[in-house]
Design a protein that fits this description.
By secondary structure, this protein is mostly helical. 76% of the residues lie in helices and 3% in strands. It has one domain. The protein is globular and about 60 Å long. The chain crosses the membrane at residues 19-40, 61-82, 113-139, 160-184, 190-209, 230-254. This is ABC transporter permease. Keywords: Membrane, Transmembrane, Transmembrane helix.
Length: 261
């Protein structure tokens, strides 16, 4: 399994699109950071209360930027990434070649899942680093910051801890969505159709079922809400259980199917 994951990263390093995406993402983060400074405020929409306006500063910028681009990761990046990694390789016969080397199906699908989780995790850390650098470039030094209440005062250490919690919960949401995307791509063979189906399921599900909208279209609001109510541990455990359950379902379906390309 380790060799399969290592092979995935090797293939990724050989793609020009990888480096283009790294550059584009850094530029996007810096542009958003600059615009947030110009606009001065960030708006969070709580489901249980009216919208609140927060002042963006050096300490809360990472959370503010992730709130802006989070939907691009959940709705676009994850479906495209998983489809390119699973459905595309099914359709062009690469998975069949891998299995012909004696690697069992469970190892193949689980290694791909782990690779995608690690990749998204690296991407989130990269965003955190870029926003931190942007905050040093565009924003003045402050002693205190606020995230939820306009009159709260969080020190540097408290602000860093809040940002880390925010990013960690967002990562768990991404893991859950990776699990969902995996099972869709295991069932659907066409990469394009898998992307459309994945995005369609997320959008339709968000429209029909509010909790889905909370972790896809309004992930930042969901995270802020559970942090403010001290429900991080419970929600994190629930997301992990859902992710593992869907992954086991993906593995079961993949083992039952016979891919002959």
């Amino acid at each position: 399994m380790f060799n399969c994951i290592k092979s995935e990263f090797y293939k990724l390093s050989k793609k020009k699109g990888t480096y283009i995406l790294i550059i584009i993402e850094a530029i996007l983060v810096f542009v958003i950071a600059f615009l947030l400074k110009d606009i001065v405020s960030v708006i969070y929409n709580h489901s249980s209360s009216d919208s609140i306006r927060m002042i963006t500063d050096r300490l809360n910028l990472p959370t503010a930027v992730l709130s802006e681009i989070g939907v691009m990761i959940t709705i676009i990046l994850i479906p495209v990434l998983i489809s390119n990694n699973i459905s595309k390789e099914k359709s062009d016969g690469q998975l069949r070649i891998i299995q012909s080397r004696g690697i069992n199906k469970s190892s193949v699908i689980i290694s791909k899942y782990i690779f995608n989780v690690i990749l998204i995790g690296i991407n989130i850390i990269y965003i955190f680093i870029c926003t931190t650098i942007a905050s040093l470039v565009f924003y003045n030094k402050v002693e205190y910051s606020s995230f939820i209440l306009i009159d709260e005062k969080l020190t540097l250490g408290q602000s860093i801890f809040y940002n880390i919690k925010f990013f960690c919960v967002f990562f768990l949401i991404c893991i859950t969505l990776i699990s969902l995307a995996t099972v869709i791509n295991v069932v659907i063979d066409s990469s394009i159709f898998a992307i459309v189906s994945n995005i369609g399921c997320l959008l339709i599900g968000s429209y029909l079922y509010r909790p889905i909208a909370k972790i896809t279209l309004k992930a930042s609001d969901f995270i802020i809400e559970i942090i403010s109510k001290n429900n991080v541990a419970i929600c994190s455990l629930l997301l992990i259980i859902i992710s593992i359950t869907i992954l086991l379902l993906s593995n079961l379906i993949y083992k039952k199917k016979d891919y002959k390309y």
